[in-house]
Amino acid sequence: MSNSWIKNIHNCRSIIRSNLGPRVVNVVSGSPADQAYWLESLKITRQEIFRTDAETTIISSIEGRRKGNFLGSVNAWMEVKKAMDGAPLPPMVLMNMVFGLGKRFSPFTQALGNRKPAFPTPLRTANLEAYLTMADVAAMSATLWQHHLESNGFNGIIIKWGDEAIVPGRIWESGMSKYKNVDGIRFIWQTEPTEELAREKEWVEFDTQTLFMTHQYTRQGLDSLRMRLSERGQNRQVGVNLGSLAISYPLMQAAEEIFREDVLNDNKWVDWDPYTWIALTCRDESEWKAEAALEERMGKTGMVDLANRMPDFFYKIQQVRDIFRARHGRSPQIAVLDFGQPYWMDWGLHLSLRRSLEALVTDSDLGTTSRELFQLPQERDQNGNLLVRSMIPKGADIRNSILVDTVVTDPETVILGGLVVAGRHRKLQMPCGGCALFCAADDMMFNGAHAIAFKATGNRFQLGEGDRLTTLYLSDGPITMQVNESLINFEGGNYTLPVLGNPISFEEAGRRMSEVDTRLVEKRWFDQWNNWLG
């Protein structure tokens, strides 16, 4: 798959260089501090990820209360129109959702000022002044989607999640008008269901002749999914839902008119997946009730919970359809766009982050593609290393590793199959691999595999297998926080009380970091990091 992935990465860069990327980008966060942060951040990186002429208008809006990503999209749409102040909308707008508590990414979330999509990648800006964040790289991958849809006649909004970069495994055709009369687009991977995919993902059903969506299936067991599919007819196929989506301006406008009061109600929230899509494909209330009855038999409570929050939800979706039909003479048409097997990089969880970083060091399809995405070289030296703007001591045992923007001074250093980015180290021991990112230390020892240190600065650190370690740069001095990837439950006492020997809880860490200006936190880290080997 790497050939297709890499070709699409090159296509994406060509779109950016040709100034064909989005003209308006709306970044949606959850607080005034985040609103200011993302506005400032994207103004710095927009010419790297959207258009080299930097002619991309950045709108930073807030979702102050939980809305769910459906009502949240309507809220953000209203904010976009307000920010445009009567100016005509471009053919397409990219809407990037970058909020969330990020509990399961503790303590890295807290180290990032409670903004997990702000995790830095190895990719630097052209002037080498900054590292692109995960949100930047995720938004950059969507530039390819935007150009494809726009060049095929679509007018509307791409709504995507902030810490997922998805590169298609198919090469799409452009220059036609097949999306001119399409009102929504589902992004899918057309593949055969497996037990894991059936259980973990929603499935989008579509007509093989028209490529229009006909239904969506909730997550369920493989046997149950297969039984439902067997009842739907021979001209139906399914694909894994990839999450992000596109909605036309006319359909979004109709949704705003019907759901505006719900958007303004602090107690209302609804997601797109799966129930908004199911409601849009149900022809009448009897089909909606049949879905609810089926879900009840499966032991699911999602539709009951939705009915308790919004008893009139299906009725309002039908009103959206009726308004749209009255204005445009047809029902909304929802198409599917097959990505093929996607290159999917999600840095929002400890396990997916570790797997992605470890793959980067290998010569697998994922590793080769990741290096291309981050503009790292592919050809290794005689020791199997990729050394990028880095200095290592003679005599050090460094093999099959990647070092980017790193200085190591002690010849007793051992790095075998490791990844080191922006490191300033005297002695670094990584005999089982691991990742040291933006750290500065006299002696850092990785005693087991799968460990990650992030922005840790200090004299001596030790990490065991699967450990995560970082430094929080608080007003009353830095503190070290850690966790292990084996901890997957961050609810209750695991979040509200100190665990694993940490001096404070993850909850308190988040609260204290929210009280500190992000620029001051960054300066404290940089001063420690920059002067370590001075």
Can you walk me through this structure?
- This protein folds into two domains: 2-344, no CATH class; 350-530.
- Helix content is 37%, strand content 25%.
- The chain is built from 17 helices and 26 strands.
Condensed summary:
This protein is 37% helix and 25% strand.
Q: Helices, strands, pairings?
A:
Elements lengths: L1 H16 L6 E6 L2 H18 L7 E6 L5 H17 L7 E6 L10 H4 L8 E5 L6 E3 H18 L4 E6 L2 E4 L16 E6 L5 H6 L2 E5 L5 E5 L4 H9 L5 E13 H16 L7 H10 L3 H13 L4 H8 L3 H16 L5 E5 L4 E4 L3 H12 L3 H9 L12 E3 L8 E3 L2 E3 L2 E2 L5 E3 L1 E4 L2 E7 L3 E4 L2 E7 L5 E3 L2 E7 L3 E8 L2 E8 L8 H4 L9 H9 L3 H13 L4
Parallel strand pairs: 1-2, 1-3, 3-6, 8-12, 14-16, 15-18, 16-19, 17-20, 18-20, 19-21, 20-22, 21-23, 22-24, 23-25
Antiparallel strand pairs: 4-5, 6-11, 7-13, 8-11, 9-10, 9-11, 25-26
DSSP strand content: 25-35%
Q: How many β-strand runs? A: 26
Q: Helix/strand-derived class?
A: alpha/beta
Helix count equals 17
**General form:** globular
Kindly report the oligomeric state of this protein: single chain
Q: Uncertain segments of ≥5 residues (pLDDT<50)?
A: none
Distance between the termini: 45 Å
Instruction: Please give the share of residues in helix.
Output: 25-40%
Largest sheet: 9 strands, mixed
Rg (C-alpha, Å):
24 Å
